[in-house]
Amino acid sequence: MPASSSRLIPGTVLFDGAQAMKGYALNRMCFSFNDAANREAFRADEAGYMRRFGLTGEQADAIARRDVLALLSAGGNVYYLAKFAGILGLDVQDLGAAQTGMTKEAFKARLVAQNDQPAALEHY
């Protein structure tokens, strides 16, 4: 079923084709963090590393502020941003908590609670 405005989740940014194009350079840079040498190069010269990938001013500012929500708005895909978050010692659950405005502990509890749905709903 295609996403529609009635199915949007409050506090999240829909990652669609337009967002993918907007965030291409940012996501490409974050993907590069799969390589330890690239993570070290970023740590050594963040501004230079961002210029190498052609980040926009908005993206570079959000990286400098470590503002994951702004990075999502700037076209970041949560799975690529997880590579950047790893440099900061964060994981995908930290990102999910930030997106929902919850603490990590509350977010994890919400995930567990959603997993404990009645058996009648399991076939959906």
Name the helicity range: 55-70%
Q: Give a count of the beta strands, DSSP E runs of length 2 or more.
A: 0
Mean pLDDT: 85
The CATH superfamily of the largest domain is Dioxygenase LigAB, LigA subunit
The general outline is: globular
Please trace the helix and strand order, writing H or E for each element: HHHHHHHHH
CATH architecture of the largest domain: Orthogonal Bundle
Q: Pick out the low-confidence regions.
A: 1-5
Count the domains: 2
Distance between the termini: 13 Å
Cα-atom Rg, whole angstroms? 16 Å
Write up this protein.
- The chain is mainly α and 124 residues long.
- The chain has two domains: 76 residues, Protocatechuate 4,5-dioxygenase, Chain A (Orthogonal Bundle), CATH 1.10.700; 34 residues, no CATH class.
- 63% of the residues lie in helices and 0% in strands.
- The chain has nine helices and no strands.
- The protein starts with 16 loop residues before the first helix and ends in a 9-residue tail after the last helix.
Brief description of this entry?
The chain has helices spanning 17-22, 24-32, 36-44, 46-53, 57-65, 68-73, 78-87, 92-100, 104-115. The chain is mainly alpha-helical and 124 residues long.
